[in-house]
Structure formats: C-alpha cells, structure tokens
Specification:
By secondary structure, the protein is mainly alpha-helical. 61% of the residues lie in helices and 5% in strands. The two termini are 50 Å apart. The site of arginine has 10 residues, from helix 6.
C-alpha cells in the first residue's frame, strides 16, 4: 500500500524504498501501534466522526492484525514502508471499505511519536526494574561481607581501608540515581501526541484529551508542532542509558582489575568467565570487559541522535526516523549487560584474606596517627607533617613504621594500637563513612530505598 498515490503518479523506485524503509527495525513498535490505533479509533467514535458500527469493524480488524503480529503470522508486504503502513494495509484488507477511515484525523507523524512514547515508557520502567535486581545483588553481597575490608583507593594508590560492603554499596547508590533518572524521563515523556496530525491538528472533531486518557498518558500535547517534532524523550533515554552504561563500565573495570592475579580480590564463577582459544590457563572476565566496551557505543548513540536533532527545523522531518535504531540498540545492550553483571556479581567469590592483607599495610593507618595527634591538641598540618616524615623514613630506611611510631616523642607506645589490623577501618565513624557503624546504617537506608524504588517501578518489594 502506498500512502500518497493521489499526489505522486509513478511507483516509487526500489532504491527509494530500500533506503527510506524503516520496517526492518520499527516492527518492534507493532504492538504499541495497534494499541494507539485502537484508542484513535475509539476517539473518532467519541467525536462522532465514525459511527459505532464503523468503530466496531475497525477495532475487530485491529484486534485481528494484533493477533497476527503476536503469533508472527502477519504477512508484511515488500511495499510496506514502515510498521504503521503495514498495519493500516492489513486493517484495510480485513475491514474492507471502512479500513479507509482508520487514518482519519491522524498522520504518521503523530502516530509514530505516540507509539514510540508508549514503547519507551514501558521499556524504561522495565529497565529500572532490572537495575534494581543488580542493586539487590550488590546489597546481598554487602550483607554477606560483614566486617571484611579492603584498601580504598584514590589515584589507584592504596589510601584508606574501607569495608567491602561500603565499596559495593557505592556502586549501588550510583545505580539508585540511574533508577531515579529513568523514572524521571518516563514522567516527562508521559504525553500523548495523537491529535497533532501532520503538524497542525485537524478541522475534525478530534478528542485528544480523551485519547490521551484512554492510552493512560498523564496529558495530551500542548502544541501540535512540538508534539510531532519532539524527540527529547529519546535523547533523554539515551543519556540515561549512556550514564547507566558508564556506571556498569566502571564496575566492569573494577572486576577486571580485581580478578587479575595482581589484585586477586575476586574470582569469577566459571559460568561467568571465558577461556582462551590458545592459552589453556586463562580465565577471562569478558562480561566485565564488554560492559566497559559497550559504554562507548552507548555514548555514541546519544551523541549521534543529538547531532541528528540539532539542525532540524520544525516540525516533522524524516531525519527523525533515525531515533529508533539507537534507542532499540541501547536498550538491548544495557538490558543484556545488566543481567550479565547481576549474575557475575551474585556468583563471584571475594578473596577476603587477600583484600585484608592488602589493607593491613601499616601506612594505611597514617591518617589515623595524624588524627590521634589532633585529638591530643596538635594542629592537623603539623600532625600531617610528622606522620608524613615517619612514612618517608620508613620507606627510605626500610624500618617498620611501628618502630618509628614507638620511638617518636609525640606518638610512642600509646599510639601503636592504631597500626593494628582492622583498627583504621573501625575508626571511620562519620555518617556515610566506611566503617562498620555508618555502613550498618547505610545498609538499612539502602534497603529502604530499594523497597521504595521497587514500588515505583510497579514491583512488590522482595
Ligand atoms: N517511519 C517514519 C518515522 O519513523 C514514520 C513517519 C513518516 N512520516 C512521513 N511524513 N514520512 O519517522
């Protein structure tokens, strides 16, 4: 079926269709198009544009086309330019003459924007639920880690010991912001474009508010030009996905580091590791590397769409068809990556002894020595200098720090307890800090947050 036979006389060149068709990818919007078309038809009935029998014929035909799409018996024709054209063609085949009334008061411009909003609303909410599952895996591991600790790093240099639970929840909180962002995007996109037509609305008695309500949208569009040309919601979704991808990438990078022999902090379960085709001894962290690698592609999708949008005059331009492939791909990649990382985190084995041994180097208590002097009334800068020169002497002269501390007039034997394993982390008592007290509180807050977010994504708390 061609939609513009009246205006253009010759059949489209095959290369035109080959280049402009979006059917191969926008098939994915089929179910949403049917749902939106049903509301559109009912709206035409509400507005008195179609009589009840016409409405019923069209709804029956749409239902049948929907079933054929669902069980894959739907026959797409080579001339179907996109999924919207295909569905209208099929409805017309089933409904006969009345089929020609389906597109009354509607353009593919408002139609495609509506289907894509329905799709994105559902997908982003579903994705937020998958993020929650990864957060739950992190919380479980944090819970099981108890008071185990490891070196915390800055500049990838050992800095201060932190509880393993604290480290895992740091990733968990970043993911909580991702959930927030995804849901905020859903809230903003919850607007129905139907009724905007090609760009200006219609002379017919359309009922956009009614249609918006029927589709469960929070509101109808405010401006018809904006309704058909706005792809902010796709750009926002791509940003949310890119940043989520960056968070997964940073977790992935740590898994790569921690599972190396150099660190030895984490051992991947065999089911979540790969081998080498040549080197029999290898056990590789490919999942972690691929989430790291795919984040580049996700950033590319965002910048690609922004570049597509930046020069477009109002209102609809065919360039906008370029919104779908990056969105679909970004959703697929992030969904797969989330599930894989959830399994990886849930099944990995942490080598707590190695972590603790790395954290128990006496220099990791350096700031505790300085803070002990501050407690005794010394200005922090002076204390910092004293401890700094002790550590330097220790490195240069290969003398254990304990000996130097014991011999120092301001420190002495009273300060030695600070160098004992586990003391430094136990002394991190600041709210939100890395020690057992604040981490227990943090864990409770994180657990509450997950329960609240589970409700926000329409899932019962576990
Ligand atoms: N497949 C098109 C898209 O995704 C549908 C809209 C076509 N509209 C038009 N005026 N050619 O944007």
């Amino acid at each position: 079926m061609r939609l513009w036979d009246g205006r253009l006389q010759s059949t489209p060149a095959p290369e035109l269709l080959a280049f402009t068709s979006s059917l191969s990818f926008d098939k994915r919007l089929a179910a949403d198009d049917v749902v939106a078309s049903r509301s559109h038809v009912k709206g035409l009935g509400e507005g008195g544009i179609l009589d009840p029998s016409e409405v019923s014929i069209l709804l029956t035909a749409l239902a049948r086309a929907g079933e054929e799409l669902a069980d894959a018996s739907f026959n797409f024709a080579p001339t179907d330019e996109d999924v919207h054209t295909a569905i209208e063609r099929r409805v017309t085949e089933i409904a006969g003459d009345v089929g020609a009334k389906l597109h009354t008061g509607r353009s593919r411009n408002d139609q495609v924007a509506t289907a894509l909003r329905l799709f994105t609303r559902r997908e982003l909410t579903g994705l937020a639920a998958s993020v929650l599952r990864l957060q739950e895996a992190l919380l479980d591991r944090a819970d099981a880690a108890g008071d185990a600790y490891l070196p915390g790093y800055t500049h990838l240099q050992r800095a201060q010991p932190v509880l393993l639970a604290h480290h895992l929840l740091a990733h968990g909180w970043a993911l909580a912001r991702d959930v927030d962002r995804l849901l905020a995007t859903v809230e903003r996109l919850d607007v129905c474009p139907l009724g905007a037509g090609a760009l200006a609305g219609s002379s017919l008695n359309l009922v956009p508010d009614w249609v918006a309500g029927d589709l469960g949208f929070a509101a109808r569009f405010e401006n018809s030009l904006d309704a058909v040309s706005d792809r902010d919601f796709v750009a926002e979704a791509l940003f949310d996905l890119a940043l989520l991808g960056v968070h997964l990438s940073r977790m992935g990078e740590e898994v790569v580091l921690w599972s190396s022999e150099e660190f030895g902090f984490l051992h991947l379960d065999d089911a979540y590791a790969t081998g080498s085709s040549m080197l029999p001894q290898k056990k590789n962290p490919d999942i972690a590397e691929l989430v790291r690698g795919k984040s580049g592609r996700l950033i590319g999708h965002l910048t690609g769409l922004l570049a597509t949008l930046k020069g477009l005059p109002l209102s609809y331009n065919r360039d906008l068809q370029e919104d779908k492939e990056p969105l679909f791909d970004a959703l697929d990649q992030v969904n797969l990556g989330l599930v894989a990382m959830t399994g990886l985190i849930a099944s990995a084995r942490f080598d707590l002894d190695r972590m603790q041994a790395a954290a128990d180097q006496s220099a990791s208590s350096a700031v505790d020595l300085a803070e002990w002097l501050v407690d005794k009334g010394m200005p922090f800068r002076d204390a910092h200098k004293i401890v700094g020169s002790l550590v330097r002497a220790c490195v240069e002269r290969h003398v254990p720090l304990t000996e130097l501390v014991e011999a120092h007039p301001d420190l002495g034997t009273d300060a030695l307890f600070l160098l004992e394993p586990g003391t430094a982390v136990a002394r991190r008592t600041t709210a939100g800090g890395a020690g057992p007290g604040p981490v227990a509180e943090q864990m409770a807050r994180f657990r509450n947050r997950l329960a609240e977010d589970a409700e926000r994504v329409g899932r019962s708390p576990r």
